[in-house]
């Protein structure tokens, strides 16, 4: 029942999604594809948009981020940034990478990404992949401590 309690707590507050892309148009496309809720069984989302690597790192380090979406084509690249997050931030949030080329899947593995979605952004595939990642993260989280 602890997982039900944890899920109930998660349902009360919005999920915070950190979205990194150096291109504003790309951020707009992703935000529109995600909508306000990525799945019926998950809470609404709040999207925090950032355009720089330092903003990504400082926002994650400040806490409160449930999941991160990184643009693999951003400058600097989301792939290297993902690897940096995984190596430098203890218990950081799960990361979904957006990749322009199918051949980038191996780079996403190198970057230690938790999920990868290909461009162009698909308004069905992206929210589904993000929802799956959030559910896995919730299931893997330790039970709330008393």
UniProtKB/TrEMBL annotation:
PROSITE patterns in the cross-refs: RESPONSE_REGULATORY
GO biological process, one term: phosphorelay signal transduction system
Keyword annotations from UniProtKB, A to Z: DNA-binding, Phosphoprotein
Entry protein name: DNA-binding response OmpR family regulator
Start and end residues of each Response regulatory domain: 16-134
Positions where 4-aspartylphosphate occurs in the chain: 71
Natural source organism: Microlunatus parietis
Alphabetized GO MF terms: DNA binding
């Amino acid at each position: 029942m602890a997982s039900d309690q944890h899920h109930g707590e998660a349902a009360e507050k919005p999920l915070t999604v950190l979205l990194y892309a150096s291109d504003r148009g790309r951020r707009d496309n992703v935000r529109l594809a995600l909508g306000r809720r990525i799945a019926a069984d998950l809470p609404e989302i709040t999207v925090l948009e950032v355009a720089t690597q330092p903003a990504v790192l400082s926002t994650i380090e400040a806490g409160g981020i449930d999941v991160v979406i990184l643009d693999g084509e951003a400058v600097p690249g989301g792939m290297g940034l993902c690897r940096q997050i995984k190596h430098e931030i203890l218990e950081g949030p799960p990361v979904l990478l957006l990749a322009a080329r199918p051949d980038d899947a191996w780079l996403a593995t190198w970057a230690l990404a938790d999920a990868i979605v290909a461009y162009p952004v698909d308004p069905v595939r992206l929210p589904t992949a993000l929802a799956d990642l959030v559910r896995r993260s919730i299931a893997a989280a330790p039970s709330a401590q008393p």
